[in-house]
Amino acid sequence: MVWTVSLESGTRGALEGFKRRGRVVSAAIAILVGTAGVVGCASRADVNTATTSPTATTQGTERSSPASMASTSTTTTATTSTSTKRAAAASEPSLPVPTSSQSAGPQPACTAKRPVVVLDPGHSGGPNFDSTAEVDGPKPVIALGITFQPVDIDGSGIMAIDNGGAPGELITMWRAAQRIRTILRSAGYTVHLTKSSANENVGLLERVREAINDHATIAVSLHYTGGIPFGQANAHFGVTPQQVGLYRTNVANGHTIRFTNARVAAESQRDAKIIQQARAAAGDGVDVAPLDESFPQSRGLPAYGNISIVQVVDQRFPWIYNEDGDVGFNLHDYTTGIANGIERAVPIAACLRPHAAGAATGGPSTS
Asked: What pTM was estimated for this model as a whole?
C-alpha cells in the first residue's frame, strides 16, 4: 500500500515537470497510460492482501472499482447477516437433550395379582368343642347327640368337629402362624389366618369358608403330632396335598364326600412337593405323605376317611396340610421351611415386592 501511494506521488511530480518543459499533452498521455498500469497492479495486490489483513481489506475496498465495491458490499452484507443469525442462535435457549437417565414418562402400572395366603393354625381352645360342630348344608343336623350348625359351602352334608390337638399344639401352631405371616408379609404377600387368637373356637367348615371369602391363592394348615421326633420322614404324615379320590364319610348316615377336582389336585401336589423340599432344606426332613392313618373310624370322629375335612370340602384352590413331630420341635426350622416353600410355590411378582413399591413412590411400601 505504501508502494502504490509513492507511485501516485511520483506521477504528480512528473506532470509538474513536463508542464515546465512544455510537453504537457504527450507526456501526460504517456504517464497516464503508465499510471493506469500501476493502479491496476496496486488493486490486485490489495485484493490479495485483503485475504490476510483487516487493514488491507479496508484500503483495498477504497481503491476498488464500482463493480468491485458492489461485490464487496454484497459480501459484507451476507457476512453480517450470517454473523447476526449465528449470534441470535447462540442467544436462544437450547432444548434439553434426552439422556438415558431421564424417564420417557411414568412407568407402567403393575398388573400382577398379589397372592393371598391363608394360614390355618390347628385346633380350637375348648373346653366345649360342641361349638365347633358343623355340617356343610343349609340347616342344622342333630346326630351323635350333638347339634351340628350349618355352614353351607357346597351342600355336601359332611359333618365335622374340632378338638384341642396334641399337648402344646394349639399355642405352638398359633406362634408358628404368626412367624410365617410376618415373613410372607415382609415379602409383599397378603396373609390371613383362619382364627383371630390361639384359644378361639373356630369350626373346620368355618375355616374353609374364611379361606374362600379371603379369595385364597393357597391355604396351609399347621399341625404337629405328639410322641413323634421332629423333622423325621414319616409314611403317614408330613406334607400332604389334595388328591382325586380321597374321601370322608359320615358315621351317622354314611354320606361320603370325595375330592374330584383334578386341576386343583395337580396344583396341590406340585405345591406340596415344593414346600416339602423347602422344609427339608431348612432342617425339617419330613416327606410328602398321605394322612391315611389320621382319621380312622376308631377315633370317634363324626366323619372318617383319609383326607382332612378342610382339604376335601375346599375344592377351589390348593390346601396343603403340614404335620410334624412334637419331640424336639424346632419352631424356627418348621416356620422357615414352610414360609420359603410358600414363596416358591406361589411366587410374587417383582413389582409387588416392598422394595419395588418403595422405589416407585420414593418411600417404603405400605403393603
From this structure: 0.70
- In this prediction, residue 5 has a pLDDT band, given cuts at 50, 70 and 90, of very low
Which grid coordinates belong to 193?
A: 389366618
Co-location of 177 and 122 in the same domain: yes
Residue-wise pLDDT tens digits, 276-304: 999 999 999 999 999 999 999 999 999 99
Domain match, 143 and 40 both: no
User: Distance between CA atoms of 339 and 274, rounded to whole angstroms?
Assistant: 11
Domain count, the chain: 2
Based on the fold, state whether residues 242 and 290 are members of the same structural domain.
yes
Domain ranges, residue 216: 116-361
Tell me, yes or no, whether 240 lies in a domain.
yes
Q: What is the pLDDT of residues 96-108, one digit of tens each?
A: 555 554 555 666 7
Q: Are 49 and 160 in the same domain?
A: no
Mean pLDDT score of the chain = 80
> Who has greater pLDDT, 2 or 221?
221
Structural domain includes residue 133: yes
